[in-house]
């Protein structure tokens, strides 16, 4: 798996990196935002792509 396509998803409330995912950076220019479950907050929160 190429390192160019890997992204980190950070919780918008506690700011912990909980998930890693892949993204096609040629077709998706904006940062990704997904509602995922945060183990630390113990609820579903929005997770945003980090650098």
| Strand segment tally | 4
| Helical percentage | under 10%
| Total helical elements | 0
SSE order, as H and E?
EEEE
| C-alpha-based Rg, rounded | 11 Å
* Fold-level CATH name: Rubrerythrin, domain 2
Q: Runs with pLDDT <50, length 5+?
A: none
Counting structural domains, the number is 1
Please give the CATH architecture.
Single Sheet
State the name of the first-level CATH class.
Answer: Mainly Beta
Q: State the end-to-end distance.
A: 18 Å
CATH superfamily: Ribosomal protein L33
Beta content comes to over 45%
- Which whole number gives the mean pLDDT? 93
Largest sheet report:
4 strands, antiparallel
Structural class label: mainly beta
């Amino acid at each position: 798996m190429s390192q160019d396509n890997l992204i980190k998803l950070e919780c918008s409330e506690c700011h912990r990196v909980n998930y890693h995912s892949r993204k096609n950076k040629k077709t998706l220019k904006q940062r990704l935002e997904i509602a995922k479950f945060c183990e630390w907050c113990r609820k579903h929160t929005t997770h945003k792509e980090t650098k």
